[in-house]
Specification:
The chain is of the alpha+beta class. The chain contains four helices and eight strands. The protein has a four-stranded antiparallel sheet, with no helix packed on it. Strand 6 and strand 7 form a beta hairpin. Helix 1 packs across helix 3 and helix 2 packs antiparallel against helix 3. It is elongated.
Length: 181
């Protein structure tokens, strides 16, 4: 099976955000920041209340409530902007460029302007399907990003990935309702 891909900034961003959303380290970091900021404002409110400075006590109570409610939205936007800048700096040479992928039983062949690669299927660590993309994670670190909209025969691609998962004894992780949160 052969496909032609033109991955854009959104494809790379979707991959980075998916990876961040499944990383235990990043989930813990975001949660700690949220809790710390809320507790910090609540502590200030308590200190000003004890010091009988009620205006500032009320101000920091309101700030802690707002932080408790809105910090996840802020964090989501902050990480998204960070990854956008990261992609613009590090992937500018490949964004929008034509790539060809050929899928064989024992290996995956890739070609683009910069060269060719051959990845043995035994290097595949995980196969993930979300509503818009397939991600083939490799043991060596990087991943293959496949935008479903650019695959002419999605059924054939799914059959190939199912056969690959069967041969490697790994499951295809289907997270079709995944969104960045």
């Amino acid at each position: 099976m052969k496909i032609e891909l033109y991955l854009d900034e959104e494809d790379y961003l979707t991959y980075q955000l998916y990876t961040a959303s499944t990383s235990e380290r990043i989930k813990k970091k975001r949660k700690k920041s949220w809790i710390f900021t809320t507790i910090f404002f609540a502590s200030l409110a308590f200190l000003f209340y004890v010091a009988m400075i009620h205006f500032l006590a009320v101000y920091f109570v309101i700030a802690s409530v707002i932080t408790l409610v809105l910090y996840p939205l802020y964090s989501r936007r902050k990480y998204k902007n960070y990854y956008k800048k990261y992609i613009q700096e590090n992937y500018q040479e490949v964004i929008g460029k034509r790539s060809e992928m050929e899928f064989y039983q024992d290996f995956i062949s890739g070609r683009n302007e910069t060269g060719e690669s051959k990845i043995y299927t035994t290097d595949v660590k995980a196969i993930i399907e979300i509503s818009t993309h397939f991600f083939i994670k490799l043991k060596s670190g990087p991943s293959i990003i496949i935008n479903k909209a650019q695959v002419t025969d999605i059924g054939e691609m799914k059959v190939y990935l199912q056969q690959l998962s069967k041969n490697l004894s790994i499951e295809i992780s289907q997270e079709l309702s995944w969104t960045w949160k």
